[in-house]
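hey can u run this one w/ D-galactaro-1,5-lactone bound, need the structure tokens asap thx
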Amino acid sequence: MRRVLITGAAGGIGRALRETLRGVYPMLRLSDRVELAPAREGEEVDRAELSDMAAVERMVAGVDGIVHLGGISGENEWAVILEGNIVGLYSVFEAARHAGVQRIVFATSNHAVGFYPRAITIDHQVVPRPDSRYGVSKAFGEAIASLYSDKHGIGVLCTRIGNFGTRPIDKRRLSIWISPRDYTQLVRIGLEHPDIRYEIVYGVSDNRRSWYDNSNAYRLGYRPQDDSEPYAEAVLAAEAGQSLDPIAETYQGGTFCAAEYTAKSQRS
Ligand code: 15L
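ok here u go:
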């Protein structure tokens, strides 16, 4: 990997990777729809709307690998999701194919499988069970990644990210948290592992309360350094006495499941 592109580089994960991947590859190309801090040595800064194919083609030209973080990072109205995570996602994969890019790390989400109950452990082979329009767009992204892997030979690591941050912020996040250094490790596996063709892994740290069997990530060499448990006491104390939504509490996706929920009974 000589030149690695990070899309969505102005977001929280993008800003962190800009630091942790600095100097790891000779050139980082940082792209976003909003203005980024000026390029330093070993960096190129680019501004592109993902729905603008010509801009996306310029964005991917000459890169060896892509970390695709760009698009909409939470629930939104359909038109917004459609532009950022369906049309935009397609543009990135299509431009990558034309440009001969061999490797993509895709930031998918726990919300692609958010309607799995908390009571069960899921692995990388479960079928999608999205909890929102956003979750559907991430499942779509995983499907596009599969198509471009099978049909065009692009190696893709789909990282179903839980919640990225320096610490877990609530009870649900104790089960799905990922630290910046652990996510950096996964991204590097996605870019550098010689044998990745199409893989799904969970982007989570080594959390004692995890809802995931992340053995596929471990098989690829992932050795997370962090665990949410040391934060648990403080997180749970801060939430004590709060009223709980039964739907949010039942499912892994939490409030993404409860929002707009109208079903009269729960699907088994
Ligand atoms: C996500 O996929 C979002 O991008 C992030 O903003 C959080 O909502 C996270 O999931 C989460 O589930 O905590």
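The pocket of D-galactaro-1,5-lactone is lined by residues 73-74, 109-111, 161, 163, 173 (CB under 6 Å). anyway lmk if its weird
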